[in-house]
Amino acid sequence: MLKALKMIKPSYYLLLGFPLAVLGSLLGAHPTFNFIAACVGLIPLAGLIGEATEALSVVTGPKIGGLLNATLGNAAELIITIVAIKAGLLELVKASITGSIIGNLLLVMGFSLLLGGLKNGTQRFDRVHAATNATMLVLAVVALTVPSVFNHTLSGQSLPAMTSEAISLGVAGVMMVLYGLGLIFSLRATASALTPTASAEAPCWPLKTAVVVLAVSTAAVVWLSEILVHTVDAVMVASGLSEFFLGIILIPIIGNVAEHLVAVQVALKNQMELSLEIALGSSLQIALFVAPLLVFISLAFGQPLNLVFNQFELLAVIVAVLVATLVSLDGETNWLEGAQLLAVYFILGVAFFFLPT
Fold this sequence. Notes:
The chain has helices at 2-7, 17-27, 31-60, 62-72, 75-86, 90-120, 127-151, 161-188, 207-230, 232-239, 243-268, 272-300, 311-328, 335-354; strands at 123-124, 332-333. By secondary structure, the protein is mainly α. A two-stranded antiparallel sheet has the order 1-2. The chain is globular, with a radius of gyration of 20 Å.
């Protein structure tokens, strides 16, 4: 019995958050309790979706596996944002998009470089590969910036809502085409951040087990997302936190914490190439796949989502991409660069906390 307990991953104990959140919701518990329980339960469920996807990748082979990783890599966060769109929390959704990009490039890369550098010294990776991924990130930032720039005229007046929506739909369509072309290129060539390969520690599950775990975990994430989203208003009142801050800091961490931990773990094992693939791949998927997909999905709920972000969000994304690109130019990293990335993230976090909405 004790041996079996030792084999259980510590994160699995957080699954207790699922029944607590469900029972709290059914019994009318305080919204803050339900919110915290839902957040706790979502962390291991997001990890299980990732593990099931990796297990499927092992069974299906590298090409189909890469495609699965490219489409399901951010499944948990995609589900949370879809539920938020349904509830009309569009600012929360847009904040989570930029928060995910910033978090991956600054927080995850920062901790990976810092801890990996402290343990292994200077770590090296493929410079050319990193430059290709950095170029894709720059293109993604350009695409996300265009609707916002067009929304603000020189006279300071905003364009009509229909115009902003039309521009966002056009840009979203181009972004998804670019993402598809990137997938085709990466599947024909070597591995890419768009199609990250399964890690060496991917679970060796039978196909049926992987499918069942993926289906059950996805259903549980949908359930907890409903609970989380419906408690947001009460949590904002009780905590004094804004919808914007919850979206840009909390939601991205909850939806991707399992993947973040993997990036740090492989960096500690001196596998910086894989660590950067995870951080960059997640950022690219959010920018080029999840964000435009949400624009089209929002139409089905009668809650049109545009890609118009406030100026500080755009500045933060541009800074994150710029700093991450500069760090990856020389093909090697050290702990000081990790500390620098983390410093930028926490500076932005302080500003986001006080940013009026």
